[in-house]
Fold this protein.
Amino acid sequence: MTSQLAVELAYWQQTILRSVGVIAAVLLPAGTIVYLFLFKMMSFMQSRLGPNEAGPYGSMQLLAEVGKFLQKEDLVPDGADRRVFTWAPIVVVASTFLTYVVVPFGPDAWFARIPAGIYFALAVSSLSVIGVLMAGWSSANKYSLMGGLRAAGQLIAYELPLVLAVLGVVIQAGTMDMQGIVAAQRNGEIFGFGGIGNPFIITQIVGFLIFLVAMQAELTQPPFDMPVAESELVAGYMTEYSGFRFLLFFIGEFATAGAFSAIAATLFLGGWSVPGIDPDNNLMNVLGPVVLLLKILLIMFLVMWFRVTYPRFREDQLQIFAWKYLIPLSLVNIAATAVLKVVF
């Protein structure tokens, strides 16, 4: 005999819990990514120790950095458009928060289940382009303006292969619901064998690689860091920002990296599910977020590995790579997926 304890919460209480949950979902992966990869993995790959004074093994360095930025004076240039300048980092961070809303963390753990969830996620993630343009234009600084224009051209170019890479998954799963995409991978079979389901990284390996490259460019991380190239543009569209607003851009960068990694883990690695464990088990609502976090960290390892390995592209090389290689290849992948879907 089993009993269930159900608590009916008011709408405002549910809203508060969801808001706190989204904040935790955004900040915890972002902080983990910064410490594990930016502070430690990159240091080891470059034969140095990295931060090691603040806390055991430098584990409190991130808190020290946040405290430092919070103490700095918040400056606004005399010639800047104050209102647009102020709202730009908020728009960037808000797009990341909205992206996490549709990511499933377990069989019953999600903030909002939308039938066109992946469409919503890709749509709101593109709002960061507007925030970057706002920052570059409103700063009254030529380096910021050049960085904003570079970022706009780059993000628009690489959003196309990013979306086209996702289309292959949508065709194969037959749904845009992210929970449905997880179910399609969990319940699928590979040549009649269903022991591990059908993780789409196997059948959509081309789409996964395209998504990974386009994701790197969307994050403006090396080798796609032309919008913030320190050797050319100081810090690009962030040149005039200081204190808390610069901190928001910093949080936005790595929180967005976590959001894109969560989307990639859901689309190609089965999301929160684990082969052999009953998805109807309530335990997966607890283990699911941990499983998803581990898959996020696996994808971020690849992203950071590329970041410290390859030199920066030139602007023309970046555009050529997107328009002449990634987009045609993603269209071929969509065509092949559609044909095989009909045949098999």
In short: Residues 11-45 form the longest helix (35 residues). DSSP finds 13 helices and no strands in the chain. Residues 129 and 156 are 8 Å apart (CA to CA). Residues 66-343 form one domain.
